[in-house]
Amino acid sequence: MDAVIVGAGFAGLYMLHRLRGLGMTATILEAADDVGGTWYWNRYPGARCDVESMQYSFSFDDALQQDWRWSERFAAQPEILRYARHVADRFDLRRDIRFDTRVASATFDETAALWRLRTTAGEEVVARHCIMATGCLSAARLPDIPGRESFRGATYHTGRWPHEPVDFTGLRVGVIGTGSSAIQAIPVIAEQSAHLTVFQRTPNFSIPSRNRAMDDDYEASWKARYAERRRHARTLRTGIDYPLNPLSALEVDAAAREREYTARWERGGTAFMASFSDLLTNQAANDTAADFVRRQIRAIVQDRATADALCPTNHPIGTKRICVDSGYYETYNRRNVTLVDLRRTPIEAITPDGVRTGEGEYALDAIVFATGFDAMTGALLGMEIAGRDGATLARHWAAGPTAYLGLMATGFPNLFMITGPGSPSVLSNMMVSIEQHVDFVADLLAHMQASGAATVEADAAAEDAWVRHAGEVAQRTLYPHANSWYMGVNIPGKPQVFMPYIGGVGTYREICDGIAARGFEGFRFTPSASRAAAE
Ligand code: FAD
Ligand code: N01
Q: Which residue, 353, 369, 385, sits at the end of a domain?
């Protein structure tokens, strides 16, 4: 086989399609029993995208984007999963996907210049190239709370939600965590359950989504100029086409700032963070946005102490992924919802009957862990990956992940990572970043076909320079000021480095295009045996 792809989320699906276009033979190995990745696993109530669906979708095929109709501004998980299935069927991808197949290890056989993958069932799969499309947010993380296993009721993780319907009617439910997943799930669970207790360690900033049914005119306006708008989005920092304000928050007066924030709060969604150009680089500018959101929280939440507890104060707004909700803060006005502030009274243990904090025990029938992921590196390091001389990726990344362009790590020939650490990935519209990485890898493989190269590998100096550059760019922003999963802080013992590339999707694309135009500068190629003999 020319290539093996691990993962059948959007990245793996598009990669397979592109490889077929190059005339290459390829197979996807996928742990789940269907396609969809994130949208297969995250079936919790309220799950939906926060990039508008007209943009959170593939752009590579015009007929696809013209034909597909989204029912809402921000589609919910079942619809996005239907879309992933449609893509798999439309491009006849399933015949090259092996489901229920988890990869345990991948080892580079230097003599044969082949990757040998071993599945958890003990099968071996061999290919020249190995493409990891394993996802940035696919390794779900359960917290190490003492007594977790002792709980007698039902437990769930948002990122591993059951496929059967979960009915919380009449139950006392606890949600642990207040990140994006919890903030989406809490309003829905509150409506269903007898009582909902939310255990919050760190409050997050959330912007109302103002989600609504798709407006026909809005859809038509996008579809009339789809190619042009997608092209434009690719040049932007986040890969999302929404109104950007080029002004600093500090160069307008307080009244003008208030107008801008109010308009964006009413519009809904992550465009709030584009209210001014310097919200993520200037603390004083950031404070104005954070203050505005805290005022909205206090205006919505009636109980003073609850409102205070919900107001984030320990990180600049946007430096943890901004959340987008449907009625999140309003939910705390319900009589059947209690917020427990773990900063005052930390969780001591999970007991057979509920959760115990310093203040007492909360009796529960079900616990929802909305405790996130071992992001960006978790799925990759969940496999034992060994490159040249048997050196492992875990060793190479002992001090934090390093990869040239976030695509290839030195010492791992023919091993590619789609949206790997060091690329814009999670800081962007992931569909834009996935398509860009897949296209780059496909172009690189076409270049190898044309030049008769057997292997490609990132040059050590190029990797070092890229990692240094990515680190410097991050330091110019406020992001490193937050204890976020971007920094690896949520996983005990994980090296704390800012993992995604924050230079922006447009800038990153320009850099990659320049590198490709210069014959894939920074990558080292070895010729195939036949080419070497001919030379
Ligand atoms: P994934 O969809 O994560 O797919 C990876 C696949 O690899 C999975 O199916 C997994 O089972 C498989 N896999 C992993 N390891 C192995 C192994 N060892 N063996 C076999 N298979 C393996 N991004 C946005 O841009 N906008 C959004 O609105 C947005 N919303 C999100 C909402 C949620 C709840 C979450 C969790 C993430 C969201 N994201 C969003 C990020 C989202 O992960 C990406 O948009 C995108 O779906 C990632 O696609 P992917 O194919 O790269 O990875
Ligand atoms: O995970 P998270 P997530 N005791 O890591 C808490 C994408 N996404 O699944 O902050 C108590 O953000 C933890 O507390 P703290 C998006 O990129 C997008 O919600 O560590 N609490 C935190 O509150 C997002 O950023 C959407 O103090 C504990 C929470 O659990 C990413 O996925 C929707 C704890 C985890 O929050 C991850 O989001 C969903 C403990 N021991 C996801 N351990 C969209 O809307 C952890 N926590 C597009």
A: 369
Pair (156, 126) in one structural domain: no
Contact 184 CB / ligand 2 (< 6 Å):
yes
* Residue 107 and residue 199 share a domain: no
**Residues 406 and 338 both lie in one domain:** no
Q: Which residue, 350, 369, 388, sits at the end of a domain?
A: 369
Kindly report the backbone phi and psi dihedral angles of residue 422, in degrees, each rounded to the nearest multiple of 5, phi listed first. Answer: 105, 0
Contact residues for 112 (Cβ-Cβ < 8 A; gap 6+): none
Least distant ligand from the CA of 492: 2
Looking at ligand 2, which atom is closest to the CA of residue 178?
A: 23
Number of domains in the chain: 2
Cα–Cα distances (Å) from 525 to 28, 412, 533, in that order, read 25, 12, 16
Q: Please, are residues 237 and 216 in contact by the beta-carbon 8 Å criterion? A: no
Contacts of residue 285, defined as CB under 8 A and 6 or more positions apart, other chains included, come to 248, 249, 250, 276, 278, 279
In this structure, the answer to whether residues 303 and 249 fall within a common structural domain is: yes
Atom of ligand 1 nearest to the CA of 29: 20
Instruction: Give residue 373 CA to ligand 1 midpoint distance, Å.
Output: 11
Task: Write a three-state SS string for 361-398.
Answer: EEECCEEEECCCECCCCHHHHCCEEECHHHCEHHHHCC
Find tokens 């990485």 and name the residue: 437
Q: Which amino acid is at 457?
A: E
360 with 497, same domain: the answer is no
Residues 6+ apart with CB under 8 A from 150: 350, 351, 352
Q: Are residues 220 and 359 in the same domain?
A: yes
Domain span including residue 520: 3-139+374-534
Instruction: Read off the pTM.
Output: 0.98
Ligand nearest to the backbone CA of 185: 2
> What one-letter code names the amino acid at 432?
V
Average pLDDT of adjacent 10-residue blocks, the chain of 535 residues: 98 98 98 98 98 98 98 98 98 98 98 97 98 98 96 98 96 98 98 98 98 97 98 97 96 98 97 97 98 98 98 97 97 98 96 96 98 98 97 98 98 98 98 98 97 97 98 96 95 96 97 98 90 73
User: Is residue 437 within a helix (H) or strand (E), and if so which, with residue range?
Assistant: helix 430-451
**Judgement on whether residues 350 and 420 belong to the same structural domain of the protein:** no
Task: Mark whether 164 and 206 lie in a shared domain.
Answer: yes
Cβ of residue 490 lying under 6 Å from some atom of ligand 2: yes
Nearest to 31 by CA among 153, 138, 157, 114: 138
